[in-house]
Each structure stands twice: as C-alpha cells, then as structure tokens.
Records
---
Amino acid sequence: MAIKKFAVACYDDEEVLFPAIKKVRRSGYKLHDVYTPFPVHGLDHALGLKETDLHIAGFIFGLCGTSTALGFISWIFTSDWPLNFGGKPHFSLPAWIPITFELTVLFAAVGMVLTFCYLNQIMPGVKKHVFHPRQTDDYFVVAIELTQHASEEEVVTFLKSTGAKETSVQVAEEGWWYGRWDKQEPYELLNA
Amino acid sequence: MHLKYESIVREPLVDGEKDYHQVTEDIISPIEMKPGRMWYVGFFFSVALLLFGVFSVAWAVYWGLGTWGVNKTIGWGWDITNFVWWVGIGHAGTLISAILLLFRQGWRTGVNRAAEAMTIFAVMCAGQFPIFHMGRVWDGFFVLPYPNSRGPLWPNFNSPLLWDVFAISTYFTVSLLFWYSGLVPDFATVRDRAKTKFRKMMYGLASFGWTGTAKNWQRQEALALVLAGLATPLVLSVHTIVSFDFATSVIPGWHTTIFPPYFVAGAIFSGFAMVNTLLVISRKILHLEDYITVGHLEAMNKVIVLTGSIVGVAYLTELFMAWYSGVLYEQAAFQWRILGPYWWSYWAMMTCNVVSPQLFWVKKLRRNIPFTFVMSIVVNIGMWFERFVIIVTSLYRDYIPGSWAYYSPQWPEVGFYLGTFGLFFTCYFLFSKYFPVIAVAEIKFILKTSGESYKKKMKHIEDMTEEEFVHVIETHHEDEEVPHHA
C-alpha cells in the first residue's frame, strides 16, 4: 500500500478502449489497472489476464457441504442416536439426499461469495481510490503508474494520442484502506 | 465497425436513443429524488398492514393457535396455504435471474433485479408461516441440529418437514447472495454520483468499495454464472421438497408422484404473475417504460400461458389417476373436491388457473398492459385457491366420517396473511426507493446489441447481399488492429 502518481485516461467507448489498451501494453508503460462501468467481454484477454479459478473454489466448498451433511447425518443416525423410523434401515441414504443437496449448494454459494470478496478485496467499510467519478457510469478508465522512467507530459501526450476523451495526472493510494466514502483523504488535497 | 449484433427482426430490449450515461440517469435518478405522494401513501399503508399482522400474530401466539380456526381434522388451513403460495411466488425471481441467464435470454436483464427482490421478500413472508405454525414458537430452535442437553436428541433428518427447513433457509441465503453480488457494482454507481454526504457514506458502505477493475468484473461474471448454475437446481429442489410435505404422507389427494413437477410449474406460474403485477406499476411510477417494455411483459405472459397449461394438464392427470387407480378413497377425495362443500374453491382454481391464462394465446391480449395486470391478479388468486384446495379439501373429510369437519379462518389467521402483504410491500417500497430497480451494469452490457438506436444502425447490414457482406467482413479484419469481442 503506497501513495503513487498516476496518469489517467478516460475513454467513452469500448471500441476506442481496445486499440488503446493494445498500444499501452506495447508502449511498455506500467499499466496499473483498467476500470469499466460494466463487464466488457474480451477485456481480460486484451489485458493478458488469466481465467479466474473462482469456480474451483466453489466446487471445493460444495464438496465440503456434501461431506458435512452425509458425515453428520450418518454419524447421528447410525452411531450417536439410532432411531427406528417404521422399521427402515438406520443408514437410509435416499432420505438424506435432499438435505445433502441443500448443504452442498449452501456451502458452495456462501464459500464462493466470501472467496470473491476476499480476492477482490471488497467489504463494507473498504475504500479505494476512484480515478474518475464516471468510471462506474460511462467512462472506461485506464491508469498508468508514473515511474522515474516515464515523464508526466510524455505519458499524457501518449494517452491523448490513443483517443482519450479526458486525461489527468493524479496522486492516489494504490491499494485499499478502511474509510468513509464521504470523507476526503489527506492525499486527495494534492490533486486539487 | 461493430459486427456483433442482434438481428433487427428481434424487438429491441431498450427503447429510445440512449447512451451509457442516459441509462445511468434513467435508472439511478429516482433514488436521488424525493419520492412522490403515491409512494408515501403506499408505503404507510403497507406499514399499517404489517403492524396489523404483527398484532394478529401476537394474538395467536398469546392465546394459542385455536384462535386461527384450524381444528383437529383440518390442522393445516390458511397458514400452510399461504406458506406454499408465497414460496411459489418467489420462484419466478430465481427462474428469471438464474435459469434465463443460463439460457442466455437477454430480456431478463430488464426485470431480473426487481424479480429477485420479489423472491427474497416472498421467501421472507413464506418463512413466517411454518415458524408461527409451531405454536410454541419460542421453542422454534428445536428444529436446528445443535448439541443439546436432551441427549443430544437430534431432529429427524428423514422428515420432509425438516428438509423444508434446510431448503427454505438455503434458498433464502443463496438468493440473497446472488442478488447482492449483482447489486454491489450498481451501488458503486450510485455512490460515485452521490451529491449528499449521507448518501455517499451509505452507498459507499453498501458498495463494499467496488471500483470495477477488469479483474473484478471477470470474477463477478464467473460468480454470477456459477451461482446461476447452483440456483437453478436449487429452485427446483425447493418446491419439490415443499411438495414432499404432502406427497410423502398417506392422505388421499396428497399421496401422488406428480406433485414435484406440478408444484414447480405452479410456482413459476404464480411467480411470473406477481412479477407482472409489480412491474406494470413500477415501470409506470419510476418512468422505466423504455427498459421494461411491452416486449418484456409479453415474454412473461408467454411463460404464464405455458406454465398455466402445464398446471392444467396436472389437474386433469390427478383426476385421471384417481379414477384409473381404482382406489375408493382417492376417488372420493376428488369427487368431494369438485362437488363437495368446498366446490367453489375448486372451480375458482380451475377458472383462474386453467381457463383464463389461455386468453394469452392471443397476441393482442399478451401485449395489452391493463389486461396483463388484471390477469396477473387473477392468476395469483387462482394459485392461492390451488393450495387451499390441495390442503383443506384433502383434509376435511377424514377416513372416519365421524371426524369430518368444515373450516373457516378466524380473524387472527386472516390478519397474519394480510400482515405478510404488509411485510412484502413495505420491503418492495423501500427497495424501489433506495435500490436500482433495474440492473444498470447489465443493461449497459446489452445496450449495443439490443438497444433500439443501435439496432437501427445495423439495418444496412440486413439489407446487404451475401457478397457485399463477405466483402465488408474481409476489409473489416484488415483494418482492425485488435480482435475484440471474441
């Protein structure tokens, strides 16, 4: 977590964004991140991001649910407190399927959502820097970290040449922190 | 040139000239404005109804369930009828948000947020009934499998009633998670537009700090897809298990294998009707006619005529099976349903559920908004009667003629039902004021393929000959630097 300087470009159409991203990646500047108001298909490939493994986590959580339900019920009904229900076997698997299924789904869903929040680092009370208030509205925002190898003017000129509608240079916290969204952070005064 | 498009033969899903910003404006601005007078009237009426429900329930809890009007023969009356009815209504929300997502139905985007809110509120209402039906509700936690000082004595995991506890609570949890994971990005949109400090703070909390990076969206889509895959069998299992409450018993009229599919179809049928009831009003009051179009309502009316017909076939199959089985008790149960003292409930069910939805074969009526609204209420009345018929008219004439009885609800039971309407609409009014009623990000996602103005721009492609079109594609690929929209 550190406060760094970024050059920011805002595009107003995903069809301008794609060629721009290709140019940014070719230019060798340090691409911080791309922010979009909705999921843009193909953007992950354009950025060279790997597929997410979230569904594997879901599968593992689901298996936990299945084994919890089956293990718990069979232990109770065969060893902890066997009860006679109309002379039926103590180990009556068909009757346990509904609860086993429900717990599989419950564990998979809850586990996946928690994993999702953890991976994305999101939680009530978490605050992150927003480069442009319209990045959740209609702007596609590309942020480039300014290192000592890239001068401010050079990067901004480059971003303008890629068809950016708006460009700016901002000081920003790159990670997340706990904070209230209605309060201004001290570093934000530097951008005023 | 953008070559991925949907044929103009298909009706646009978003009407009017709109860009991404306009979509945000249209959907978010009702949150930022003071609600109209109708909202306050509706909201306070709902709260009053809710308070009356609380009073009715408190009365029944204090004096005992005898105040409801149920008796030794008819132990399940309005209470369980209402439970099944509300759970059924909830199912349409999951069908729209999960099953139609797997089927890649673009039109779900306009209605899924409100439909799933409806699911959650309906399940909340449904859950009240079995809880208070316990009578000694303060011992309600006995249904949970926790290590207790009575042995530990565990609940009966072989009982459909306990399956119900697991099914309904899982269904509520998963629906809530699915709904909220879609809401997080939209809350971020409200947050970043917020002009007042309080709104910024509250939506900042609600949005979990979402900023919409490419990776976040990639995970969000993966999550939505898997949750949809989980919710689809889940929603089928929930009403299947509810039907097991009846089907695994040995009561004539209940003991039948047709119940699970029959209940699921009925659930979707009544749920779509409720979605129509809510959306016909919401689109008007919130000025969302461009997003919830007549085409959306028509699509839902088509589902209503399909599921209504399935339900009709199920009713007839039940009658056939009663006759064909040769079982005297089964035959008597159905004969008394049709001609016995509760004949009016059977015929109300038949008229509302089987006959009236057939009118939706007529396209003009499917696309007629006032007619859709009236039908949506008729269907829900019919589906309430279906549950009443199944429950009360299977119980009231017992095996022993000496215990035959008749049942009418008393005011605390009716008040309980009215109270759940209060709960449902209180929640829905709050939702329509403070939440984006339409999934903003999802609408933007389909805007360029299914928006009216974008579709018009594609008209010239449809008019091209095959050779011209091939030529366009070839030159298009030469110019293109980056292959996109894989």
---
Amino acid sequence: MTRLGWLLVVFCLSLPVQAEDVVLGLSKDRVAITATFDGSEILVFGAVKRETAIPETPLHVIVTIAGPYKPIVVRRKDKRFGIWINTESTKIEAAPSFYAVATSAPWDEVITKSQDVAYQVSVARAIQARRTTHADAEQERFTQAVIRIRTDENLYQLLENKVTIDEQTLFRTSIEMPANLTEGSYDTRILLTRNGAVISTLNTEIDVRKVGLERFLFSLSREQPLIYGLLSLAIAIFAGWGASGLFSALRRS
Amino acid sequence: MQIYLPIAEVSVNAFLLLGLGGMVGVLSGMFGVGGGFLMTPLLFFIGIPPAIAVATEANQIVASSFSGVLAHFRRRTVDFKMGTVLLIGGLFGAAIGVVVFNYLKSMGQVDLLVRLCYVVFLGIIGSLMFVESLRAIQRSRSNVKVSFKRKQRNWVHTLPFKMRFRTSGLYISAIPPLIIGVAVGVLAAIMGVGGGFVMVPAMIYILGMPTKVVVGTSLFQIIFVTAFTTLLHATTNYTVDMVLAVLLLVGGVIGAQIGAQVGARLKAEQLRILLALLVLMVCGKLGLDLLMEPAELYSIASGAGH
C-alpha cells in the first residue's frame, strides 16, 4: 500500500472521532465557599455538534467532576489488648477529594472496561492510574475502603441514568456537591460514547474557593500562624472580659 | 443555620454549637468546673476532627477562665506566687504534651491517646466524685458533723527548695507545685482541657492550700497554660478553628453566668452527684467506642507532610 493509502485509512479511522463534538455549558464555573456554605448544585448541559447524519447506535454521555488529587494515609483498626486501635496503614499517593460520575445509562452500557482503563473514568481507575507502585490484594482492600468511606460521605458519587439526552443532541445533568468540599480546581470532563467506546471528550475546570472571611482566616492560619493564634487569644480574652463585665453590670442594675 | 468552619472544613449547624456551648457553660457555672472535659468529647461526637476539637477547646477555655478569674482578682483570692510556680511547670508540660501529640498524630494514634486519656481520667474523677457525694448525702441525713482537718505536715514538707507562699500561708518546697503544673500542662495539651479537675484536688490534698484561694489560683494558671497550648497548636498543627471557638465561647460565657445563678439555688451534694453521673456517662460512651467493633474499620487521614 502506498503512503497515501495509509493516510487515507488513518483519516477514515479518525473520522468518527471528529464527526461529533461537545459544546458545553455550566451553570457556574466558580463555587464560592462562604461562611454559610451548605453545598452546591452544578448544572452541566450541552449539545453534540455534528456535520453528518446521526449514526444508528445510541449515543451516551458521561460527565465527571474530580476534586484536587491529594496524598492520603488509610489506616485499619484491629483488636489489640481488648480495644480497637489503628494497626495497618497504607499510603495512597493521589486520591481525588471529590469525584462524581454521571452517566446517561447503566454503567456497563456506556463504557467498556478497557475504555475505562484508558480514560480513567471510574473513581477506582482514577486512583489506580496515579499509583507509582503496583497494588497487591491488600492495598486493593485499602483503596476499596477509601471509595466506600467517601461514597458514604457523598464525596464519591456514581450517578447512573442521571444524564438526560434529547434527540441524541442535547444533554444535561445536575451534580450535587456536598458542604465538606476542599479548595482547588475541579477538573470537569464530558465523554461521548457509542458502543462503549469513547468518541469525543471535552475538559474544563470549575474553581472551588473559600471567599471572604473563610478565605481570610484560612490564609492567616497557614501564612501567619502566630498572628492567627494571638488573634484567637485576643478574641477569647475580650469575650471573657466582656461577659464578666456585662453580667456584673446587669446584676447591679 | 449551617456554618462552614474554615479550618475544620466541615459544615455544622451554628445553633447546635451555640447550644452545646451554652449547655456546657450552664454546667460549668453550676459546678464551678471549666467544662473542657465535657466539651471536647461532645465535639468528637458531632464530627469535629479530634485534633481540631482539642486545639480549639484550649482556646475556648482561655475565655471562660478569664471570665472566671476576674471575680477572684476582685476578692483577692489568687495566690500569684503559687500560680507562677504552677505556671512554669505548666508551660513545660504543655510543650511536652504538644510534642507527644504531634508524634502520635504522625503515627495515626492520636485519636486513641486522646480517647484513652479521657476514659481513664473521667472514669477516676467520676467514680471518686460519685462515692464522695454519696457519703456526703448519707452524712447530712444522719446529721453527724464531721470536721475536716487539713494535714499540717506530710512528705511534701520534707523536700528541699522551700518557698514562702504568703497568700496561701504555706512554707513548702517548690518541687510539688512544679510537678503538678507539668502534669496539668501535659493534660491540657493532649486532652484540650484546663485541668482544673486534677489541679484543684491536688492543691488541696497534696499542697494543703486553703480552699478559698484554690479556684482563683488554678484559673490564673489555666489561662496562661491554655493560651500557650493554643499558640503551640496554632503554629505547629494549624488546628485552631476561630469560627468554632467563637461560637462555642459565645454560648459558653452566657451559659456560665446562667449556671452560676442556678447552682446557687441547688444543694451541693445533689449537684455533685449529677455531675459525677454525667462524667461517668461520657466516660462510658467513649469506653464503649473503644471496646466495640467499629462499623468502619478503615479511616482516612491527610497524607501530606510525611
């Protein structure tokens, strides 16, 4: 085959990937953690842009939002001397502080295992992909524990059938973010799939920041811990003095 | 109303915290105790991370002790010299306590240490108080007057480095108060308490100080030791949550004043039995948590800084 022939094959193979593209909208690309922050709901919506006719096989959409990856230590309790204490521990180099996956159909229908490995869509894959060492069965149990605990805290969410698609073109979903969020940039991905294979992706970011008083106190406590400590003490002493003075004034009157 | 705590990074109900602060404040006013030993476990129960509960509670105790000591200043019932000796020991103790705390935190055992300290100390103090107040009630029923006499001479008087404490009317060695100070400082740093519940009996029974100066002097020492502890935790662990502290202390100082009024109308023995039961209940709950198999065996901690 000639070089031109090869080019033609490559072009034809890559054609379906470029045939459909995502146009995305977010209800907000910033989440501000204020003093009364009580979680947030983010609406992710968009459309599929295509030049050709709609293919026969059904289109599926996966939306993922991942919080900043941080190293964590996972510990397991065992019974020693009659009480339950932490014994075994393992370090996970990078686990997302928040991870939500919303799909337009049951998990097995939207993406195949090998595509999940390639694109690190599920939270288990996302954690494993960032391991530098090989995980044995024991470490696997620790990883599963992290997913279980964070799922209970609503920090890891698998939202099957939560993406609605209209006319194979318009899609939308809403993702609830809980109150105990950490700061950072939240990587947001949209994946289009057909027959379990990813045909198009789009990445964007949602910025989660403490603002106002929360921002001020947090920065002060990390950058000027001594001043922060002294300020805490000053407030405490003032409050104690104020309360004592106020109540003795009330009693006298 | 939910409020987001900037350091603890959790969202809690502000009224719950004000209420807790108020409730513990009422109790501390009624019983004349600092309340740290009740507040810190309660904070664990509502889901504040132990390291933050301990450090923040130290900050709150500064407020309640300062509020309390002012009245004692006016009545001149503070032995400054004794307080200073106790304080020197206390500062050493607090520093040791924070070092131990940080070491165990890196080992993942700080939870266990704090809980064990609580079970042991609450258990001992609660049982002693319970037995003692039962006896007191029996005595008052049988109407027999028992006069307590302070021991005039014990082993404390045989030690060297004697000092004269005018306000307390004592001439004793500086070593026992220093040791008591160190012990209380360690407890303050590890448990997030003022340590009055250990120091007050020690001052009466070991040092032989007159009862009227004991509370004021211990409050004087507690202010500085907990202030020092707060600073140590704030600068080494970044675990003092100012928003949490403010909510607790607003409830606390108001509650304490109400509690003092209520306490004046109740009988001392009955009050002490109630307090003893409360202490034993908290101790029981913490003890059970250690003994029973937890629903989740795994726990996650931040892996930074290793």
